[in-house]
Amino acid sequence: MCLKQTVLTASLLTPLMLVGPWTSAEEKHEHDQDKGHRQHGSHVHGIAALNLALEGREVQIELDSPAANIVGFEHAPSSEADHAALDKAVAMLEDGDRLFKFNDNAGCRMETAKVASELLDEEHEGHAEEKTGEHAHEAKERHDHEDHEGEGEGEGETHSEIEATYHFECNAPGKLTQLTIELFEAFPGMEKLKVQYVIESEQGAAELTATDHTVKF
C-alpha cells in the first residue's frame, strides 16, 4: 500500500480544548516549525503522550510519540526498508479500532484517523523528486550531508515525531468506564505512555506500560 494513499493529512485535527497544563498539537507544530527540527524537552525514546477527551458522544484522542518508538529511526527515509517501515507504521496507526479498545457496552467505533510526521512529508517530497532524476540525486546528497553534520555535533541530532489523531463515536458514552491501549503490542519500541483525559467534567491521568495498559475512568 502506497504511503501517499495511507497518509490522510500532514496536519492534526483541531487541537483538544482540554483543561490542564497541556500544549496543543497546533502550538507544538508552530514551535517545531520555528526551530526547524522537533527537539522539545519531552522527546524521550520509549515514552509517548496521549490526550483523550469525551464530549457528548464524541471521543477525540491525540497521540504524540518520538518516531523511534514507531518505526525504529528518526532520520529522513532513504532506503526501501525505511519507506516500507513507514508504510506499515501508518497503516497500523490508522487502525484505531485495533489500537484503542473501549469497554464493549459503551459502543465506541472509530470514525476518522489522521497521521502526521515530518518523515512522511520528506518521503512525499522525495517521491516527487524521483520523477526528475537529477533532483532526486541532489536531494539525497543534501540529506547525506545533513546527516553527517548531525553526527559531528550533538546539537544537530535529528529528533522526529509521529502524531496521530482519532475521532470515535460512542452509542452509550455514559457507560464508558475504561480504555485498553494496544500500542505496546503494535510497536515494541513503546515502553511508557503518559495519558491525560477529560471525561465530560472529570479529569485524570495515568502512566501505562506493556504490562498495565488499561485506563479506568
Short key terms for the protein model shown above:
single chain; 217 residues; alpha+beta; 3-stranded antiparallel sheet; 8 helices; 29% strand; disordered N terminus
Secondary structure layout:
Layout: H1 3-6, H2 25-35, E1 47-55, E2 58-66, H3 67-71, H4 80-94, H5 96-99, E3 100-102, E4 108-116, H6 118-130, H7 134-152, E5 161-170, E6 178-181, H8 183-186, E7 192-199, E8 202-208, E9 214-216
Helix pairs in contact: 6-7
Spell the H/E element sequence.
HHEEHHHEEHHEEHEEE
Shape: globular
Question: What percent of residues adopt helix (DSSP H or I)?
Answer: 25-40%
How many domains make up the coordinates? Answer: 1
The helix-and-strand class reads alpha+beta
Mean pLDDT: 76
Which percent range describes the beta-strand content? 25-35%
Quantity of strands, as a count? 9
Task: Note the main sheet.
Answer: 6 strands, mixed
How far apart are the first and last residues' alpha carbons, in Å?
37 Å
The radius of gyration over CA amounts to 18 Å
Q: Count the helices. How many?
A: 8
| Adjacency order of strands in the biggest sheet | 4-5-2-1-7-8
Show unreliable segments. Answer: 1-41, 122-155
